[in-house]
Amino acid sequence: MDKDDFGLRHLSMLSDFYELTMANGYFENGMDGQTAYFDMFFRKVPDGGGFVIAAGLQQIVEYLQNLSFTEDDIDFLRSKAIFSESFLEYLRDFEFKCDVWAVPEGTPVFPYEPLITVNGPVIQAQFIETMLLLIINHQSLIATKTNRIVRAASGRAVVEFGSRRAHGSDASLYGARAAFIGGAAATSCTLADQKFGIPAAGTMAHSWVQLFDSELEAFKTYARIYPKSCVLLVDTYNVMKSGIPNAIKTANEELLPKGFRLKGIRIDSGDLSYLSKQARKALDDAGLSDCKIMVSSSLDEDIIRELILQDSPIDSFGVGERLITAKSDPVFGGVYKLCAVEKDGHLLPRIKVSNNVEKITNPGFKKVFRLYSNDSRKALADVITLFDEAIDASEPYEIFDPLFPWKKSTLENFHAKELLVRIFDKGRLVYELPSMDEIRTHAASMADTLWPELKRFENPHQYYVSLSRKLWNLKDSLIREHSQK
Amino acid sequence: MDKDDFGLRHLSMLSDFYELTMANGYFENGMDGQTAYFDMFFRKVPDGGGFVIAAGLQQIVEYLQNLSFTEDDIDFLRSKAIFSESFLEYLRDFEFKCDVWAVPEGTPVFPYEPLITVNGPVIQAQFIETMLLLIINHQSLIATKTNRIVRAASGRAVVEFGSRRAHGSDASLYGARAAFIGGAAATSCTLADQKFGIPAAGTMAHSWVQLFDSELEAFKTYARIYPKSCVLLVDTYNVMKSGIPNAIKTANEELLPKGFRLKGIRIDSGDLSYLSKQARKALDDAGLSDCKIMVSSSLDEDIIRELILQDSPIDSFGVGERLITAKSDPVFGGVYKLCAVEKDGHLLPRIKVSNNVEKITNPGFKKVFRLYSNDSRKALADVITLFDEAIDASEPYEIFDPLFPWKKSTLENFHAKELLVRIFDKGRLVYELPSMDEIRTHAASMADTLWPELKRFENPHQYYVSLSRKLWNLKDSLIREHSQK
């Protein structure tokens, strides 16, 4: 486990204020013993993509393990003069007691299926809403966006360069973490290397070049100090008139350690397709065919696809602001909804109805199965079921569109795997957090189970997320019940 | 000063890796004594707006005051096998020694003018680039976006509700801080209240309503517990058929404390214009004309303007995801550029040339004056000058467009104020950090000095940022020098 100090930061008060007023309200109303079930899910894949990559679970675990309230917190809340002393006492002795199920990080996930399910005392299960959403929404957004960029780069390395444009220091650090899960090869963020072992990389800034009396002197000095990892930024003055000629001179400099090879050049402005071709030719002509070309400059998946379509001889991409802010679609709309309560020992499903049918929630305590073809090993569909259900893979299984249930299909010759794993058992961590490398490998191997049609950028195939017949019937009866009110 | 613990977090390693490799390079090349000058500025106002509101200085101060390297940091860097032991020794004894000038938080600022100027040992002045940019870029983005939303709301309160969709926990906390500077009245983020005194506010979630056997019971319970601040969420089932009638019943409930008044209702979905009108009428008819109407649901400045244009009787807006991510334009492109070096006791200006004239930097150690009309007290123009210049307001002053210098104008009857203030003197803090309320008041009073034409949403007036004749001549000569190379 690559443990960072997220849990050691005291973030218990990073909660919407209404979580606290509701908690106090439940407490005051004698409902602190009430058990409630919540699902975290999303309704829309960012950028109209085919799938989302779940990320952020490790930080949620660390947050939950350290959830507590200090005397300062209690005093602050008391100063609001709306919280009862007995509630503040409850917070002072707070101990997290919920059950938590979650989809492991790196798993491709789809709209409407629970990524996290929490059950426990309603005060607790409700209170953690803000941080759960904030963490999953952020990291899943960046992992998903990065994966688009990595797919566009078709095997060339993508290095995350976004720290300076991230929305605060966490967005930089955990954005780098999520980008790695999504497939980035490295990051510019040193802290992400120190904390998570994500390789930190970088070249030089224009200021390095400007600080010397000449570009050539700047290059030679850098080559002398970093003979094994010398990547030169060639666009401070003029790429083809100055940067590339000086890079070639540096590569041929006799005073450098024997065996010195110029590892690469970076172009950070201008027409990257034209310049990369010109630079490649000049480098090849100078016998530097092993010198790599990296480009950067407000890149995203669209620009990278264009560059590759134009046969630009680019070896790696530094992608900054548009990755780290998910510029094209920066809101990941995960929500956290009540789905059941326990009353007198019975589990009572709850639904949120809406005139917008897509906003009607799936009631009850649920789980999710992913059905894989035994032949292709590809994922065929996900099925959301009630918690006491199983899927018998020895029989044909009918899936259907939950909104248009006459759209059906029958699956055969498949096997089913549960998607959510148990993370906390009544507040006790029962899940071994995987390492970053394990998460990244899991993400890559899970992505291999997706049909290529799901990975298209425009109008990808819509993956099937079905409900079990039993869950559909329950939902249908609750909707009818509410519409009769 | 509202001190938070930002400086106490150890974020020294949140730096682009190339800052460290360059620092080691300067050190190894015997340039650790070299003094360099850097400017932080931006080139484009987000969303095509007329101005940016500078924010984030307090966190920069706290970061710089606590900049140091632990043994863990040193060990980590050593493990990279590219840093010299003497450089690591330098880091171990690191002491921040730079001069820093900055624009106070809340000040409206414009493209190309320095918001921060740093000078000192090049290793230090370069190293802090990542955090300086990250903090200013983030908070200025959110303050500026919020100010657009607040302007659209035309005097109605805007409450920042974005935590759950923020890009990590810092984006929530410091986003709430920046939103307050930009004019938000309150935040949903409890931590922002605890740390910065920004009023935390909130109503209830749908889950509160769902958890009770009926909406009416949920409302009455809430009213009983929070008789003085009872705002009811009325859209869990159906606003006009259920939510509003139950809110009215609650307002008239006899068992509540004497003098109970329903403070407000919140509508979180549906046609907010239609529903707010219907709700207003129903509430007024029930004698509840003092009951306020709050709306939320993916709001931004455009939707709010439409709602107001349609005379929607809305008293306040809860604005979440589109504010906290600055969805319409989530990248604030502040940069940090070398502008001068000291050599043999002389200050040598440095320029970054580019085929794109807008990307050519302003050379030299500079300051910025804002010129105000003595009659209207409005800001007329900013002038960037070299550091040893003054502006004599007793004489007519000619300003011009730095890109098209034949576009000129002569100002008379004005007074000039310097925009940047000294924050650190050779690493010693010499600036008294204002309180959040002082910053917010400063922002509001500075905004009053801007012509209304600058505050338009579409095609605002372009504010004049001129160069002094001396600076323009210097820039021109450096460009000519470079183009002759």
UniProtKB/TrEMBL annotation, chains A, B:
Pfam families tied to this protein: NAPRTase (PF04095), NAPRTase_C (PF17956), NAPRTase_N (PF17767)
EC number: 6.3.4.21
Molecular function terms, GO-annotated: nicotinamide phosphoribosyltransferase activity; nicotinate phosphoribosyltransferase activity
Transmembrane segments: none
Superkingdom assignment: Bacteria
Gene3D superfamilies linked: Aldolase class I, nicotinate phosphoribosyltransferase
Pathways involved: Cofactor biosynthesis; NAD(+) biosynthesis; nicotinate D-ribonucleotide from nicotinate: step 1/1
Domain spans labelled Nicotinate phosphoribosyltransferase C-terminal: 366-475
Physiological role: Catalyzes the first step in the biosynthesis of NAD from nicotinic acid, the ATP-dependent synthesis of beta-nicotinate D-ribonucleotide from nicotinate and 5-phospho-D-ribose 1-phosphate.
PANTHER family: NICOTINATE PHOSPHORIBOSYLTRANSFERASE
Protein name (Swiss-Prot/TrEMBL): Nicotinate phosphoribosyltransferase
